[in-house]
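Let us practice reading a record.
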Amino acid sequence: MTEPSPHPLPPDSPPDVLELSDASPSRSVPAFPHRPPPHPAARLRSWSLPLVLFGLTCLSTLWSGAFTNSRLDLTPWIDWGVADLTMLAVSRWDMGLEYMLAIMGILLAHEMGHFLTARWYHIPASLPYFIPMPLSPFGTMGALILMRGNQANRRELFDVGLAGPVAGLVVCLPVLYWGVQQAVPDPQPMIVFHHPLLLKGMIAWLRPDLAGKPLVMSPLLMAGWLGLLITGLNMLPVSQLDGGHVCYALLGRRAHLVALGLFAAGVAFMLVAQHYVWLLLLVLILLLGIRHPPTRDDSVPLGVFRLVVGWLSLLLPVLCFNPMGVTFQNM
């Protein structure tokens, strides 16, 4: 996921560029040509917070993964002592490690897809900021990078926005494949993970005997399910989400109508279904702004290949995202 940067990026970010046009061939010069090189301590600070958050997210996903395929998710934590929980987590360390490697691999591929593409185009971008979420079934709320999107033109924004979900899916789909291969039915699920279309299709292909049944969420299946959810949410064509970047690159300012319509549909679904799990996401989108801001140059053509890929990519929310998400029963 990419977000606009509300604060200056780390001092090692490339300088802004001003384009000069005159009778001579076009050229570019730094906006601040006399800015001194960053001090080594400043470079260290720009790495420290992302690395700390990465380490904390590894720990929180390791912990959550240890309780995957377990009915402890809904047990009040107060009924369990820290020592008891720790001993149980240690005894299931292999499951925790399997989940941690799978989900962190998916998230890292997604964010590095954004980061490396932004750097390729010399667009200032931060390192990925991972978000730990301890004491939860997932262990993380995903990750994001901060990017100066107003320095990207239409084509560059398209590439940066789509690179993350594509890279994440490259890792997610093999994880999901092995997760489905290992899957077993859950006759009395306490938490129901509603399957998106892509997962339903994979189950029908690989394990037709499990079609339409709740499944025990093994570490790999949980990581793959969450990877699809993250991809589907990020590719919603609204605001500063990855899908918002792609949709704006395809439609320009007409993308605002798509974003406003989708936001209204999300509010309506939440009220009609009385399913409020997406309330935080809607509030976040509202704070970021439903409309996508203009790029540095909206007139740059995308070309036929990007247009075809872009329109096809807007199917990812349909394939990877189930609006019911997670529901609880048998409590």
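A brief commentary: Residues 40-236+301-328 form one domain.
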